[in-house]
Amino acid sequence: MNRIEAAALEIRRLEENDRVAWEDLWQENLDHFAAPDRARADMPVIWQRLMDQAAPLLGWLVLLQGRAAGLAHVVLRQHSFSTAQIAIPEDLWIAPFVRRHGLAERLVERLVQEGRAQGWRRIEWETGVENFVAQWLYDRIATLDPVKRYRIDLD
């Protein structure tokens, strides 16, 4: 399969009737990254947050010829240098059956569209230092920030 034809592709916000498709894709993601059991147990709560219009967690679904093919979860946050929000894609998952055909790039393009329409200040994200396939895409479409990320696990 070559690059995906635009007519076969739909990228839209998650809707209530997408739950089964979302669960399947999210489970694939959790399995791939060997997520802890807690992440699986939290799936119902995460879904409720994705459906809550007041929550700062947004979800997108990628459909290819009507079949669920990917997802994105984006956290919106305020920041101290501007009144505009920053969007942070925490998860960008393309199903293995359709990888390397441009869907991840199309999904990011859709997030950029949404950000411009909603007045976000920017989109920023991180990826694993050994995730070279994702880095190849991100290096082409975004600017690498010269920062390090630190964390303190609390649980």
Automatic annotation (TrEMBL):
<dbReference type="Pfam" id="PF00583">
    <property type="entry name" value="Acetyltransf_1"/>
</dbReference>
<dbReference type="GO" id="GO:0016747">
    <property type="term" value="F:acyltransferase activity, transferring groups other than amino-acyl groups"/>
</dbReference>
<feature type="domain" description="N-acetyltransferase">
    <location>
        <begin position="9"/>
        <end position="155"/>
    </location>
</feature>
<protein>
    <submittedName>
        <fullName>Acetyltransferase (GNAT) family protein</fullName>
    </submittedName>
</protein>
<dbReference type="InterPro" id="IPR016181">
    <property type="entry name" value="Acyl_CoA_acyltransferase"/>
</dbReference>
<dbReference type="InterPro" id="IPR000182">
    <property type="entry name" value="GNAT_dom"/>
</dbReference>
<keyword id="KW-0808">Transferase</keyword>
